[in-house]
Amino acid sequence: MAESGAWVPEGVDITVPNASRVYDYALGGVHNFTVDREFWHQTERVFPEARMVARANRAFLGRAVRWLMEERGVTQFLDIGSGIPTLGNVHEAAQEIDPRARVVYVDIDPIAVEQSRSLLRGNPGARAVRGDLREPEVLLSDSRLQDFLDFSRPIGVLMVAVLQFVPDAADPRSIISRIGAALASGSHLVLSHTGPETTAERRERQERVRQLYEQTPTPLVIRDRRRLLDLIDDSFEVVEPGVVTAEQWRPDSEEAAEIPPQPTALAVVARRV
Ligand SMILES: C[S@@+](CC[C@H](N)C(=O)[O-])C[C@H]1O[C@@H](n2cnc3c(N)ncnc32)[C@H](O)[C@@H]1O
């Protein structure tokens, strides 16, 4: 992809790696720049498992959406930190089951929002807005959300591989709690998060990846199971099987066979009581 084209929205710095574009490249997308690709190659040199982690995470997202629709009757979704559209987007999984399903994508990255809008052209059931998870009241009062989703009915709120870019200083527990306060009972949170590696050798390599992320606008925060659960207050109840690795969350047999265990991709779903 060209490095300076009309498609680069104003204000986008293409000289520093960006989480959404790095992830896009990791999953085989084309909306990324040299700096993102080099960053990913550096990451993979240190941590070759990273691509599988991204795939396990993405597969979890699809399973969770299908499960919420089929088992919990949820037909509206708010995907925060949605990233650049790639394979298996939320609206594709949801509208395949119910063509009337509604999805709002939110991302802080203008390129992710622009690419989502371009993909969604002609789809009346899905839209993309730019927003910052760290400002939940601003995000939730946006008329493009309020006019489109019915907050008196359950909503599936996805924060998949995004809370790891929200530091403790931004108080992610309070952010989730404030989002939860706007949701009807029966809504669900779908979270995934980078967790700690399980062996000393892998932890040492993971630490080098964490240090790499220091050069991006969104440094990486690693949280273990306990810290992930601590982000969810008691207005939610955690759904079985609790916090597990992404590929262990209600696997269907094909995916379970395809993706080997990825200890760092933690996943959990919780229901608004
Ligand atoms: C690793 S990607 C995950 C994409 C998608 N959720 C998935 O799992 O396939 C993380 C995304 O979160 C976005 N992001 C980071 N901080 C954010 C914030 N404060 N508000 C909204 N989006 C944010 C990034 O721009 C990026 O697109």
TrEMBL record:
Domain of life of the source: Bacteria
**Which InterPro entries does the record associate with it?**
SAM-dependent_MTases_sf, SAM_dep_MeTrfase_SAV2177_type
Q: What is this protein called?
A: Methyltransferase
Q: Which organism is it from?
A: Actinoplanes utahensis
